[in-house]
Amino acid sequence: MTTLDVDAVLAFVTIADLQSFTRAAEALGATQGAISVKLKRLEDRLGRRLIERTPRTVRLSAQGAVFLAGAREFLAAHDRAMAGLSATRRRFGLGIAAHVAGPEVPTLLARLNAHDPGLTIEVRMDNSRVLLDAFDRGELDAAIIRREDDQRGGDVLGPEHFGWFAAPQFDYRQGEPLRLAALSPTCGVRNIATRALDSAAIPWTEVFLGGTSSMVTAAVSAGLAVSAFSCRLAPPGTVEVSQRFGLPPLPSTEIVLFSTLTDAKSREALRTLAAAFREHRPNS
């Protein structure tokens, strides 16, 4: 019977997640040569090539794609078995910006829980600035936010692109003030949108201000106004209207993961979280 080596399977999954031997070695605190040896040992044990590697790309082979889900389950089962030896549960305070959270969040949390069942995950959702302040005060172990004016480092999870969205029946005549729906004046996306309109000398008026995100979405979906949204989180049924109405392009920003955790187990949890987020984002 073929038996699997945990370290070798972990090396394979990390390479698959990061699509890079170099980044996988950095994530696992090993050398690139050691990662390659572990992968080769696993492939020899299985009698299958799992990773296709060229000078420019690293990708799963057909057999690797089939094996990946089972490999994740194998590692999760191993972690659950090890966690069962400890009666102490660890707290993990995670902040996720409300304007970043999308349909991938349940998958992120499920992956994090499967990776380390010994974690008690406490999730807080708010705007980026509030979460970053809470992180600075030590109230959160990690925070996933949209980078706005803060230029500190962090692990970039991917770009965030914005567009102008409205209901298909929304009517706008050039020369008239653009009817804009937005959140509070402190909302980062609102500021991006209004600065772009001002720079393009397009008059605008806020017909819906200060509500919740669901209320803004309802106003746009009903055809009452236009609003700037992340392209991946635009309300269903709305359409991008930049070209149609001659609206200015909106600058992109980044989704960033902040954390000060340094112990090995917590860093592994963060790598799992980052990989799951990247995996479930559409190509940008």
Automatic annotation (TrEMBL):
GO terms for molecular function: DNA binding. Keywords: DNA-binding, Transcription, Transcription regulation. It comes from the Bacteria. PROSITE patterns: HTH_LYSR. Residues 4-61 form the HTH lysR-type domain. Pfam families: HTH_1 (PF00126), LysR_substrate (PF03466). Gene3D superfamilies: Periplasmic binding protein-like II (3.40.190.10), Winged helix-like DNA-binding domain superfamily/Winged helix DNA-binding domain (1.10.10.10). SUPFAM superfamilies: Periplasmic binding protein-like II, Winged helix' DNA-binding domain. Belongs to the LysR transcriptional regulatory family. This is DNA-binding transcriptional LysR family regulator.
